[in-house]
Each structure stands twice: as C-alpha cells, then as structure tokens.
Amino acid sequence: MLLSRTLVTRSASGAWRSYMEGATLTTPSPLWGGIQGGGLKRAKPSRRCYLLQQVLQGNRWGTPTLYPSPQGGGGHRRCARCDYPAIGRHKTNSVLGVATLLLLVTSTDALAHASDRGYVLLLPIGHYIVGGAAAVAASFLALVFLPAGSLGRFAAARLALIRLPSAARSYVSVVSFGILLVLIAAGFFGSRDPLSNPLPLTIWTLLWVGLTLVQGLVGDIWQWINPWLGPYRLARSLGWPLHLLRYPERAGYWPALVLFAGFAWFELIDIAPDEPGRLASAVTVYTVFTLAMILVFGYRAWTRHGEFLSVFFGMIARFAVLQGRPSPDGSDEQLLLGVPGARVAAALPLPPSGVFFLLFALASVSFDGLSRTFFWLGLIGVNPLEFPGRSAVIGVNSFGLLAAFLALAAVFFLAVSLGERLTESRRPLEQAAGLYVWSIVPIALAYHLAHYLTVLLVNGQYGVVALSDPFSRGWNLFGTADMAVGAGIVSGSAAAWVLWNTQAAAIIAGHVLAVLVAHVFAGRLHPKGRDAMLSQLPLTLLMIAYTVFGLWLLSTPTAG
Q1: Least confident of 210-219, 250-259, 289-298, 337-346
Q2: Closest CA to 177 of 242, 244, 243, 224
Q3: Is 139:513 a contact under the CB 8 Å cutoff?
Q4: Which of 34-38, 128-132, 403-407 has the highest mean pLDDT?
Q5: What pLDDT is recorded for position 151?
Q6: 8 Å CB contact between 10 and 33
Q7: How confident is the model at residue 426, as a pLDDT?
Q8: Helix and strand tally (H, E) in the chain?
C-alpha cells in the first residue's frame, strides 16, 4: 500500500479511481464483495455498499442522509437523496453506519476495491531505460541498414485463408443493433452501479479498450459488428427515401474529428462518464444522430467520413494481420493473412482533416495517461493527495486536452517539414504529412495496450458478468452471472512481472513497427536512399520521444 486514508471505488471507463480521488491503490476490500477463490466475488447489486460512494462524491450529490428501509423490519437503510442501499448486508442503524464510515475514513490502512496501478504495476525504471534504449537502437538500425524497397516487397506477401459471405454482415449488424438497444435500456433501467450495469462496461472497456486492440492487432471486426449497416439496409428494403444529399467533399473527416473530440471530452473530462443513465442518454443521442446522417448522406459516405468509430476503427485496422478483399461481384470476401502494417504500406495520403483526426486520437490517448500523473496535477496546482474531484478540473483539463492535440500536431508538422527541407523537396507538405501520420499510429496503439491492459483484464470480467444479467433481475443468460471476478490476475509479484514485460514489449514493438512504416513511406516519397534516410530523420526523433514519453507515463506515479 502506498497511501492511506483513501477510499477507492472502480470506474468502468478506464482506471480504478478514488472518489476522494487521492491515489490509486491495490488492496481489495470485502466491503465491495467477498474474496473467494483468489478473486473478488461480485455481490448482488441490492446488497452492495453505496453510502460511502455517495459520501465521497459529496462535491456532486451532497452528504446523504439515511431513512428506514421501505421493507420495514429493520431491513437495509437507504440514502434519502439517491435511494441507494446503505452499508451492510444485515440489519443496520444510523449509529453503526456513521461509526463504520468514520472508522473507514480514519483508518491508517488503505481500503480499495482493486487497482490497475499501484506499487506492483508502475513500470520499473529498468524497463523504462531498456525500452528507451531499444527504441533508439531499432531506429538507428532501420535508418542505416534497411533498404526501404525491401520492406515494400515483404509487406506485399499475403496468405489466402477462407471466404466469408458478404450478405452475412447485414444480419450480424441487425443483431448488433438489437444488442445496442438492450444496452441502452439497461443504462436507463438497470443497476446504477457501473460495475453491475453492462452499458458502461461495454462502452468503455469492451468497445473502447478491447475492440480497439482487436482492430489494430487482429483485423477489421467492426465492419461486421457495427450496428449501422443492418438498419440502413432494412430502411432501403422498405423503400424509405435515402441519400437525400451528396456528402460534400470539402467536409472530409472534419465531422468525425468533431464527434471524436466530443467522445474524448466525455470520457476523460465529464464529471460522470460511468453513470449508466447519463451514458445511456449520450449513446441514445449519438445513435439517433448517426442513423439520421446515414439516411441523409448514405451508409458508405457517412461511415467513411463522419461516423468517428467507423473512421477510427477503419484506420487502425490497416495495421492488423488479417484483411478482407471483396470479390469482383461483391458476393463474398476473401480473408487474407499478412504481416502487421502491410495494408498501410499501400495507403494513400490522408487529407488535412484525416491527419488532424489521427493526431487528435493519438493525443487523447496520451492525455488520458498524462492527466492522472502527479506531474500534471502539480502543474495545475492540485495536491494529488487531496484531489477535489473531476468537477473542479473540467476547465483546466479541457484546455489540457486541446493543448496536447495542438502540441502533437505542431511537433509532427515541424518534423515532417524539416525532413522535406533536408532533402530540398518541393513536394507539398500536406502530401508528406498525409503519409507520415500513419507511422505514429503503432506507437499510440502500443501505448493503448500497455495503459489499459489491467483495465481490460479486470473490467472485462465484470463486463462478462454484467451481460448475463443486464437489468440486475437475477438472470443468468450466459451462465456467467455468478462468476468470481479474479482481481488477483493483476496483483502479486508474478503478475507484476508479466505485466511489466508485456507493457515494455508492446511499447518497443509499436516503436519498431512505426519506424518500419515510416521507412516504407520515405522510400515512396524519395527513391534515393540518402534522401529517404534524411527525410525521416526528424520524424524518427519524434518517434523516439513519443515512445519514451509513453514509457514514462507507465512508470510515473498517478492519482487515479
């Protein structure tokens, strides 16, 4: 345990956060479910302790009071403001409740549910140094000894696997849309506990964390499971008026950028992104808006330029090992196996709107890690041991997110510009930047894996549990409702060793792939070997700095 006098509850959106928000700790507490079989056994929502959660959210809800349980007979007392069950599984009274609360708050030992960071999960300085040195060495070797042309030929190798019927995508999409509606309903009518409600667990853990990794490492699963294609084709079969307007070419990816910015702000800065009802409202608005835009501009135009999830997932899927190649008549799709990043080697330059979209996506992931560090909190004048709550830093963190994006964009365009100047190239900066921006994606994807790995391992289990009982009515649809959540998977020396090495290996592998991708693009833009090497030299330095920055974020203390 690093710190004391801090009560921690788990946030479904990313990290385990304290509602006093003072620090991230590691010790499980039986207040939140008994420790059974080496893991945390999820208690039934009606028997969970929510009084402490609401007291510690006093900046948002005020201090709750208790009134007798409507069941009578000395049952659970409930909070008069939020109607949440109070402490305890058995009969309780206000004196016992207050005494328990005072005991917990003044305890010298930290009580926590679980943590994705802590003393065992901060990347050791040795891994940090080795990772940085490996990044420098890999960059130097690629620049000096590796011909760019050989990489292009290697990337072109493919192995044909199976064929998939294209018509199945519509049926899968309809099922996905139905699941989306159930999740929204669960957000409105299910448990108020983010650990028991499947909507926040699905959106923030399974979708944003898990599917992003699947897209970047395995293949474009989103084009099969996205919930937009099925309703669109259904509307077309019913004869609804579609394609009312032509998507303006000059709009580019700007709509996707604006929507992604709203998504990132809601996840990283909003005061309660995990609250099921609040999240359900946001998902409902976005679903209605997306379907309306698809009906107006068409499925292909909007999902390729305006729907930020489809745009983002489609871009990072270019680095996966699996890709689909449609047949000439469009009846099926050939699944191909290639090397990581092979598809991006043949990518066309992105327009400025696409460049800024990718840069903002990368900056938001980095700011997610930076905003929790002691360094950032000290910079904005906040004591990490007395964190005032998210509502107190909305303004400064909003500015920080924007500043991170502008800083990354400025440094990136400066690096590309210097590289083109070194070769005395007269090529437009937009063309070179539109290609080289792809090369930063592997580093960001690797950091995404390293940063959210423990979140996925633990919260993913909660998601599997919650999906079996989406409305907290005692259902067990998939046989996982009573599954014990194994928090021990991210605690202990053995788990720490595996996590450290996985994180460091992911960051280094991402850097190596980024350098190789940049090397391929340099060969495309500058056929001469010397010019190709000089043009990517400033960008390589940026990649090294970005990699070291990611390693530093994993190794520095955080407060949430």
Answers
A1: 337-346
A2: 224
A3: no
A4: 403-407
A5: 62
A6: no
A7: 83
A8: 21, 9
Torsion of CA 32, 36, 42, 47, to 10 degrees: -60
Beta bridge partners of 39: 36
CA–CA dist 114, 8 (Å, integer): 8
Place of tokens 């700011």: 367
Question: Cα separation of 448 and 510, whole Å?
Answer: 10
More confident residue, 125 or 38: 125
pLDDT of residue 5: 29
Are 330 and 229 spatial neighbours (Cβ–Cβ below 8 Å)? no
> Partners of 40 in the beta sheet?
35, 485
**Tokens 């056929």, residue located:** 527
CA 18 to chain centre: 19
CA distance linking residue 109 with residue 31, whole number of Å = 14
Using CB atoms within 10 Å of the CB of residue 73, give its burial: 0 to 12 exposed, 13 to 18 middle, 19+ buried. Answer: exposed
Bridge partners of 163, per DSSP, are 334
User: Residue 485 phi/psi, 5° resolution?
Assistant: -80, 120
Contact 216, 314 (CB under 8 A): no
Confidence grade of residue 150 (pLDDT, cut at 50, 70, 90): low
Q: 69 pLDDT exceeds 50?
A: no
Cβ neighbours of 211 (radius 10 Å) = 17
- Find the DSSP H helices in 318-351: none
d(CA 86, CA 54): 10
